[in-house]
Design brief:
- It contains 6 helices and 4 strands, in the order H-H-E-H-H-E-E-H-E-H.
- Strands 1-2-3-4 form a 4-stranded mixed beta sheet.
- It has 2 domains: about 1-40, no CATH class; about 50-160.
- A hairpin with a 6-residue loop joins strand 2 and strand 3.
- The radius of gyration is 25 Å and the shape is elongated.
- By secondary structure, it is of the alpha+beta class.
Amino acid sequence: MQWLQDVVVVILIIIFIVGILVTNKDQGNMKINGSKRLPYKLKDDFLTDTERSFYHSLKQCVGDNAVICPKVGLKDIFFIGKGIGQDYMKFLGKIAQKHVDFLLCDPSTMKPLCGIELDDLSHTNKKTHEQDLFVEKVYQDANLELIRISSKYTIADIETALMGVFDSPKRSL
């Protein structure tokens, strides 16, 4: 009789394990129109406290001269020119996961005017510094200004950094 109980326990364990494996497989292959919910949740902290505070200060300095777009992917700002051939995916991969903290755009055309990076202590380590140099080169080669502002900024720092951004025949700060 003990062997029968052992067999039942083993069968239940197998059913349990198979159930877990099937559930995990189903979650990986969820149908969008199916009844199961997708695993995405809304983030409570789209902007950090520092970024949110800077956004409000930046808005004060920019006024109606620009639209402030936070956390814009570099792949949404820049495109890869013709003639790259097989290296297209290599160059796309270098910017695909990167973003700029804030992008200022012309309010009538939404053409990017400049990018703004809010630099905190993380920008002092070697790896981040190398990434920063690459991003600066992308902006430079695409002829778009990238402004770096310390996270320990003042309103005067922002105003000074923005000098010249809105200087064009049609716009002035």
